[in-house]
Amino acid sequence: AAFDLAGKALWKVELGAHPTQDAFGTGTSPVLFERKLFVQVFSEDAGYLVCLDARDGKELWRVTRTSGTAWNTPCLWRTATRTELVTAAKKRIASYDPASGKELWHADGLDVPDSSSCTADGERLYFGFRGQGVNGPLRAWKAGASG
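Above: the chain's sequence. Below: its structure in token form.
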């Protein structure tokens, strides 16, 4: 939902209620960029990333992902060549063009963070894995990846 500075509701979009791993509930945060609001829903029965027009809540695009709970927040990664929106959940990390939702690259089968968010600088994206009783490696992805 969006509100003006006086607290008046401007718009509301329902994304549904979905079960999460161990019934912990959701924990992602929306990302705002160029009048677009990005929200991920990664739960046990749904997996998608949606882009809403921040001015009126209209859905601009949606990409479907495999289901699997994640509580992290998408990472907006600005590099010298482009801006990417990176998501991580259920052994898959993927990057999308914020304007269109087109997938730029992905990697499957990795231990990716489901509760911590990725971070980045202009040259690399950084992410590690920490799960219940499990510690994994810290990884870095070089800017400009594809495929």
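The CA atoms of residues 92 and 108 lie 5 Å apart.
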